[in-house]
Design brief:
This protein is mainly α. Helix content is 60%, strand content 0%. It contains 16 helices and no strands.
Length: 334
């Protein structure tokens, strides 16, 4: 979708001078935030080691898992090329964090770009979170990260064998398919090597320090994903299809300012550290901020969830009207 085809051009909210100033990237700020985040991961990992064999190990693994799940934030920032000014540094960090977070970098970059182009448009936004009608089953599957853990192993395996899922093929340029397939093979070699070494040495370290905490921490990351768009308009207007949410300084830091999500969608070229300033400039033009993650989630559960029967009725009615219906939000494992 070109800017001139949008119902509202978000560039109208920001003059050229402010946009130029806000889009300046900075290596040192990016490195500082990344170093702090990885340092926190190291501290929580040490905490697991020191509490091994005690009941304190479980909450320590949960904290560690939240920090690992929040690596989505620098991965996402790098996918936009805004985490660092130096492109090679940005791409190197993107690769490393994607490997740890467990996502394919080039595939995610194209997928996420389409999400920005067709935000909240059913049948077009491949990363649309809980398109209506939403049932309790859909909500729980999303919150627990079912979509990630059931889909990604299939996706990366298909890519490793040189195949692209039909629902992804329309937005991935053919010239980049070999790169995506090569990335999948390399990542599987790395994951396979880690698993092989763990088996050889009889070690549970990858499970204890990586996979299990990663699963434990994912619901918080998924709750943020729900808050960013669910309950907002399902349409192309950036002023109403995305939500920012108020939060404390610690969570805002861990999420690399992504709670300022409406502002991020207004101008994705703005690096994470400049989003608070962008909020001060254009926030009054956007959907009111959610009071907290818990408040937004409570509102979503109260107003956006319907019974299985009601969901079926709504879908049938939409089909009769020949409206676009997204029935593949779970990313069918074809």
């Amino acid at each position: 979708m070109k800017r001139q085809e949008m119902v509202f051009d978000p560039f109208q909210l920001l003059d050229k001078k402010d946009r130029k100033q806000l889009t300046r990237r900075n290596d040192w700020i990016g490195l500082g935030c990344l170093g702090g985040h990885l340092g926190a991961v190291g501290v929580s990992g040490t905490g697991i080691y020191l509490t091994a064999g005690t009941l304190f190990m479980i909450p320590m693994m949960f904290v560690h898992g939240i920090l690992l799940a929040c690596l989505f934030a620098p991965m996402h920032e790098c996918s936009h090329g805004t985490a660092f000014r130096t492109r090679r540094l940005n791409e190197a960090v993107y690769w490393f964090v994607s490997l740890v977070y467990i996502i394919q970098p080039t595939w995610y970059r194209y997928r996420h770009a389409v999400h920005h182009t067709y935000t909240q448009i059913q049948g077009m936004d491949p990363a649309m979170v809980l398109p209506s009608p939403t049932t309790w089953r859909h909500y729980c599957e999303q919150l627990l990260g079912w979509r990630l853990w059931t889909t990604f192993p299939v996706v990366i395996t298909k890519h490793a064998f040189g195949r692209m899922r039909p629902q992804d093929s329309w937005y991935v340029p053919k010239q980049d398919l070999p790169r995506i397939y090569g990335e999948a093979r390399l990542m599987l070699v790395v994951y396979g090597t880690v698993a092989g070494l763990a088996v050889y040495f009889g070690s549970f370290a990858p499970l204890i320090y990586w996979i299990i905490p990663r699963i434990m921490g994912e619901p918080l990351q998924r709750a943020w994903r729900i808050a960013e768009h669910k309950g907002c308009d399902e349409g192309p207007d950036v002023r109403t299809n995305t939500r920012s949410t108020k939060t404390g300084a610690v969570m805002r830091t861990l999420c690399w300012n992504m709670p300022y999500h409406s502002e991020h969608h207004v101008c994705p070229q703005v690096p994470f550290f400049a989003l608070p300033k962008l909020n001060r400039l254009v926030g009054h033009e956007l959907k009111p901020m959610g009071e907290s993650l818990w408040a937004v989630d409570k509102e979503v559960r109260r107003t956006c969830i319907v019974s299985e029967g009601e969901a079926a009725r709504i879908l049938d009615e939409r089909k009769r009207r020949k409206e676009s219906v997204d029935e593949s939000w779970l990313c069918h494992l074809d």
